[in-house]
Amino acid sequence: MKVAGYTLAAAVAVSLSAFGAGSASAAPSVQRDGGPCYVHEFGKDSADGQLYCSALTNSWTSKALSRAAKVNLGDRCPQLGARAYVYRTDGVATCRQANDGLRWQW
């Protein structure tokens, strides 16, 4: 009876490893802005110190972006290509050229 229990446990372990269970969470992720990160990386900084792993979004997030003030879509913005979180959302706006100057847009 004990042999059958060990056989079943071994079969389950082999099945789980075939699906990548257990190995994906231990593997390091590619540390790029917006790239996915894993549970064991939550709250940690990237190797270059520019990003952190957000448990909220399961992704690498720019430290500068998270510290910046939130903005409203359509408002004027300071520099082409700048990024900021949009007020009352978890979305990120980009400063783009509009007909009437630089504006925060999706």
The chain-level structural class is alpha+beta
How many domains, in number, for the residues? 2
Spatial shape? elongated
Low-pLDDT ranges? 5-24
Task: Indicate the proportion of strand residues.
Answer: 15-25%
Using only C-alpha atoms, the radius of gyration works out to: 21 Å
**Share of helix, binned:** 10-25%
- Through-space gap between termini: 62 Å
E-strand count: 5
Mean pLDDT: 82
> How many distinct helices?
2
Largest beta sheet: strand ordering: 3-4-5
Largest β-sheet summary: 3 strands, antiparallel
Order of helices and strands: HEEHEEE
Lay out the secondary structure.
Elements: H1 2-18, E1 51-54, E2 59-62, H2 63-67, E3 83-85, E4 92-98, E5 101-105
Antiparallel strand pairs: 1-2, 3-4, 4-5
Descriptive account of the structure:
- The protein has 106 residues and is of the alpha+beta class.
- The protein folds into two domains: 28-63, no CATH class; 68-106, no CATH class.
- Helix content is 21%, strand content 22%.
- The protein contains two helices and five strands; from the N terminus they run H-E-E-H-E-E-E.
- The chain has helices at residues 2-18, 63-67; strands spanning 51-54, 59-62, 83-85, 92-98, 101-105.
- A hairpin with a 6-residue loop joins strand 3 (83-85) and strand 4 (92-98).
- The longest helix is centred in the first third of the chain and has 17 residues, at 2-18.
- The model is unreliable at 5-24 (pLDDT under 50).
